[in-house]
């Protein structure tokens, strides 16, 4: 396989969605100190106040990079809502795309949907549609907006598609979520088939102690899922965002992943043990 350079070594324009809390917030705090000076980091989510707090924190820890805040709602379906977002961010940063060696979009934001219902109880048209507006359509339209701005193969282009084990196997009560993640993963496999110059990491962070995980632990209609998630917490198997982000950083540093193939925290950590038992 072609040897590729550590992704963090290039002066970059990086946008992270869902950066206001949880895994995305942690990624923003950790990534900011890894990219070279004069890189630009864009924090995106609905909660502008939370994003501004992170920007303030980063001004102390990463003074050599520019941090921008972009409030948006990925669930919006108004025509043209996503157009020009990255053009205006470039203008705001007083940079042109040629100022960067690399551009990167991290699709991190997600919701889990109506987990108090089973798949055959999903009857609310607006709720089902709005779930996919945010988790699938909005993600695709934001992605299109990004590549409309960064349309040339240079600077090099990277996408991190934050996925879940639920894209690979069914999780009771997370019907909308699993189907949405599977659709996103396949979307990026097609994108890579069409645009081989774009590097895509599809990364599943494992069970991470965030609002999303706590919500599933409490509110899933599946007693088996509540039991599994509560058990992970009790057994100390739940990861901190820092632990999972550290693994993601290693994957990006090594830059040896197959384009748009599923890379999973747990498989990476525990595969050597699984292989040992097979011998
Ligand atoms: N936690 C886990 O165990 C786990 C496991 C596997 C995969 N993942 C994946 O990891 C990623 C991060 O999850 P997390 O646990 O950090 O979730 P989280 O704590 O619930 O955070 C979700 C993020 O998404 C943003 N968001 C929600 N709705 C939005 C909207 N309409 N428009 C724009 N932003 C929106 C939220 O910000 P605002 O509310 O400010 O908009 C927040 O920053 C997700 O893709 C998730 O599927 C998580």
Concise synopsis of the structure shown:
By secondary structure, the chain is of the alpha/beta class. It has helices at residues 22-32, 48-61, 85-92, 125-149, 175-194, 211-219, 223-234, 241-254, 265-278; strands at 12-17, 40-45, 66-71, 102-107, 156-162, 198-204, 262-264. The model has no long low-confidence stretch (mean pLDDT 95).
Describe the 3D structure.
There is one protein chain. By secondary structure, the protein is an alpha/beta fold. The protein has a single domain (7-207, 241-278), classed as NAD(P)-binding Rossmann-like Domain (Rossmann fold), CATH 3.40.50.720. It is 46% helix and 15% strand. The protein contains nine helices and seven strands. The chain has helices spanning 22-32, 48-61, 85-92, 125-149, 175-194, 211-219, 223-234, 241-254, 265-278; strands at residues 12-17, 40-45, 66-71, 102-107, 156-162, 198-204, 262-264. It has a seven-stranded parallel beta sheet, with helices on both faces. Strand 5, helix 5 (175-194) and strand 6 form a beta-alpha-beta unit. Helix 6 (211-219) packs across helix 7. It is globular, with a radius of gyration of 19 Å.
């Amino acid at each position: 396989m072609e040897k590729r350079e550590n992704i963090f070594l290039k002066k970059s324009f990086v946008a992270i969605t869902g950066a206001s809390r949880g895994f995305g917030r942690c990624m923003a705090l950790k990534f900011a100190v890894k990219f070279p000076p004069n890189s630009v980091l864009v924090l995106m989510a609905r909660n502008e106040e939370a994003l501004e707090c992170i920007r303030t924190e980063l001004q102390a820890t990463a003074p050599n990079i520019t941090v921008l805040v972009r409030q948006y709602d990925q669930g919006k379906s108004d025509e043209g809502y996503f157009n020009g977002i990255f053009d205006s961010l470039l203008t705001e940063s007083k940079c042109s795309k040629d100022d960067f060696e690399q551009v990167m979009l991290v699709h991190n934001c997600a919701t889990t949907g109506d987990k108090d219902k089973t798949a055959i109880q999903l009857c609310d048209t607006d709720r089902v549609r709005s779930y996919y507006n945010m988790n699938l359509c909005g993600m695709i339209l934001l992605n299109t907006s990004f590549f409309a701005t960064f349309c040339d193969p240079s600077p090099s282009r990277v996408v991190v598609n934050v996925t879940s084990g639920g894209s690979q196997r069914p999780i009771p009560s997370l019907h909308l979520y699993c189907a949405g993640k599977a659709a996103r993963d396949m979307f990026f496999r097609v994108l890579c088939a069409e645009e081989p110059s774009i590097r895509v990491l599809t990364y599943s962070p494992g069970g991470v102690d965030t609002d999303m995980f706590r919500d599933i632990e409490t509110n899933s209609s599946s007693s088996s899922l509540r039991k599994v998630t509560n058990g992970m917490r009790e057994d100390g198997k739940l990861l901190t965002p820092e632990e999972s982000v550290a693994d993601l950083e290693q994957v990006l540093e090594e830059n040896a992943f197959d384009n748009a193939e599923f890379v999973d925290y747990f498989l990476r950590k525990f595969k050597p043990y699984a292989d040992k038992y097979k011998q």
